C-alpha cells in the first residue's frame, strides 16, 4: 500500500492516441520535474499532431514502436530508467473488434502481458525496487462489466466482469493479467475503468466526432438502432485529472471507476449536439434533419453507467466539466480544423 507517489521517468504507451496525448500534456504541465517517454506504434488511431505542442519540450521523448516488442520495451525501461508505466495503448474501437478481433487479442492482451513482464523483470528482479519506487497504471473501460438495464445500479469496482464484445473481452483479459501480476509478483499496480471519453483530438470514427463532422459536411448522421442506448460521458481532461490522482495517491492493487456522471441516450446526445451547432454555426436547415437510423451494432450493449464514489470519497476526485461545456470545447475544436 502507498500514498503520495511521485513519478520521475514515466513511460506512456499509446500517447499519440486520444486520451494518452491529453494525459501527457496534462502531466507535463502539472509535474514540472517529470520526464515522459511516449511509446506509440502510430497505428491508424495515433497521430503526432495530438502532441505537436510539446515536441520541442526537453522533458518529452517519442519512440515509435510496438508494445508487443519485448526487446524494445525492455530496452526502453533500461535506457530511460523508467519508474512509472501508464498504459493506454490498445485497439479501442468496438466495431473494428467485431470485424477483426485478432489485432485486439494481440495488442490488448499480448501487449499488456509484454509490458507487465518487462516491468517485473526490470523493477523487481534486476533492480530489486520496492513498492514505493515504481508504479504500473493500467487504463481500462467500463465495458468489461457488460450491459445494464434501465433500473440497474451503476457499475462499481466489485461488479462482475461480463464483457460482451471482442474489444471488452480483450480489455477484461488485460485487467486480469494486471491484477495477477500484483497478486503473484507484488508488482505495484493500480487500475482504472472509465466511461466513454470525449473531447478534442478524438479519432473521427468515434460517436461524437462522427456527429459533428456529419453536421459540418451536411451528411447523414448515422445512429445505431433506435438510438436508445445509454452511455455515461466523461470529458477527457477530467479523466486525466483522475488518472493523476490515482497514480500519485491511489492504493496499490486497487482499481478505481471513473465516470462523468452524465448519462444520456445516444439519440439525446445527437440532438443536443445538433442544437448546439444550430446556435453556433447554423446550416440551411436544422442539423437534426440529418439524423438517420442505421442497423444496430451486433451485440450492442444497451446501457453503461459508472459509480465513481470510491474515487470521490477516497481520493477526492470529481468530474468538474458539464456536458454542455465539454461539448462546446469539443465542437469548437472540430470547427477550427
Ligand atoms: N476513448 C474512450 O472513450 C475510452 C473509454 C474507456 C477506456 N478507454 C481505454 O483508454 C485507452 C486509450 O483509449 P483512446 O481512446 O485514447 O484510444 P486511441 O485508439 O485513440 O489510441 C490508442 C493509441 O494506441 C496506439 N497503439 C495501438 N496499438 C499499439 C501497439 N501495439 N503499440 C504501441 N502503440 C499502439 C495507437 O497508435 C494510438 O495512438 C485504451 O486502453 C482504451 O481501451 C478508452
The count of helical stretches stands at: 10
The name of the CATH architecture of the domain at 9-196 and 236-260 and 304-319 is 3-Layer(aba) Sandwich
- What is the CATH C level class of the domain at 9-196 and 236-260 and 304-319, in words? Alpha Beta
**Number of DSSP strand runs:** 12
Note the main sheet.
7 strands, parallel
Share of helical residues: 40-55%
Strand percentage: 15-25%
Q: Would you tell me the structural class of the helices and strands?
A: alpha/beta
> What does the radius of gyration come to?
20 Å
State the low-pLDDT regions, or none: none
Task: Describe the structure in your own words.
- The protein has 337 residues and is α/β, with parallel strands linked by helices.
- It has a domain at 9-196 and 236-260 and 304-319: NAD(P)-binding Rossmann-like Domain (Rossmann fold).
- Helix content is 40%, strand content 17%.
- It has helices spanning 18-30, 70-80, 94-99, 102-126, 166-185, 207-216, 236-249, 266-280, 309-315, 323-336, and strands at 9-13, 35-40, 60-64, 84-87, 135-141, 189-194, 196-198, 221-224, 230-235, 255-258, 263-265, 291-294.
- A 7-stranded parallel β-sheet has the order 3-2-1-4-5-6-10, with helices on both faces. A 3-stranded mixed β-sheet has the order 7-9-11.
- The longest helix is centred in the middle third of the chain and has 25 residues, at 102-126.
- The structure holds nicotinamide-adenine-dinucleotide.
- Nicotinamide-adenine-dinucleotide binds next to helix 1, strand 2, helix 4, strand 5 and strand 7.
Amino acid at each position: 500500500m502507498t500514498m503520495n507517489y511521485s513519478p520521475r521517468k514515466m513511460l506512456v504507451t499509446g500517447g499519440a492516441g486520444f486520451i494518452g496525448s491529453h494525459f501527457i500534456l496534462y502531466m507535463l504541465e502539472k509535474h514540472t520535474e517529470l520526464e515522459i517517454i511516449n511509446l506509440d506504434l502510430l497505428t491508424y488511431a495515433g497521430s503526432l499532431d495530438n502532441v505537436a505542442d510539446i515536441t520541442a519540450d526537453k522533458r518529452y521523448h517519442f519512440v515509435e514502436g510496438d508494445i508487443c516488442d519485448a526487446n524494445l520495451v525492455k530496452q526502453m525501461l533500461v535506457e530511460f530508467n523508467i519508474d512509472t508505466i501508464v498504459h493506454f495503448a490498445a485497439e479501442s474501437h468496438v466495431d473494428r473488434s467485431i470485424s477483426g478481433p485478432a489485432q485486439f487479442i494481440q495488442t490488448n492482451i499480448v501487449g499488456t502481458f509484454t509490458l507487465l513482464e518487462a516491468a517485473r523483470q526490470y523493477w523487481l528482479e534486476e533492480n530489486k525496487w520496492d513498492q514505493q519506487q515504481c508504479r504500473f497504471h493500467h487504463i481500462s473501460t467500463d465495458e468489461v462489466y457488460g450491459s445494464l438495464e434501465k433500473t440497474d445500479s451503476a457499475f462499481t469496482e466489485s461488479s462482475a466482469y461480463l464483457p460482451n464484445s471482442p474489444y471488452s473481452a480483450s480489455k477484461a483479459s488485460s485487467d486480469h493479467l494486471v491484477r495477477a501480476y500484483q497478486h503473484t509478483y507484488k508488482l505495484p499496480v493500480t487500475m482504472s475503468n472509465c466511461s466513454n471519453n470525449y473531447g478534442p483530438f478524438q479519432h473521427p470514427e468515434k460517436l461524437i466526432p462522427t456527429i459533428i463532422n456529419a453536421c459540418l459536411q451536411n451528411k447523414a448522421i448515422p445512429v445505431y438502432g433506435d438510438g436508445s442506448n445509454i452511455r455515461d460521458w466523461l470529458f477527457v481532461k477530467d479523466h486525466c485529472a483522475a488518472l493523476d490522482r490515482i497514480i500519485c495517491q491511489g492504493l496499490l492493487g486497487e482499481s478505481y471507476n471513473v465516470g462523468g456522471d452524465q448519462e444520456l441516450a445516444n439519440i439525446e446526445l445527437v440532438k443536443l449536439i445538433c442544437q448546439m451547432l444550430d446556435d453556433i454555426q447554423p446550416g440551411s436547415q436544422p442539423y437534426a434533419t440529418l439524423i438517420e437510423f442505421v442497423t444496430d451494432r451486433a451485440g450492442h450493449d444497451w446501457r453503461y453507467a459508472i459509480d465513481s464514489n470510491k474515487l470521490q470519497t477516497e481520493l477526492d476526485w470529481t468530474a468538474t466539466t458539464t456536458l454542455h461545456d465539454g461539448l462546446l470545447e469539443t465542437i469548437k475544436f472540430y470547427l477550427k480544423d
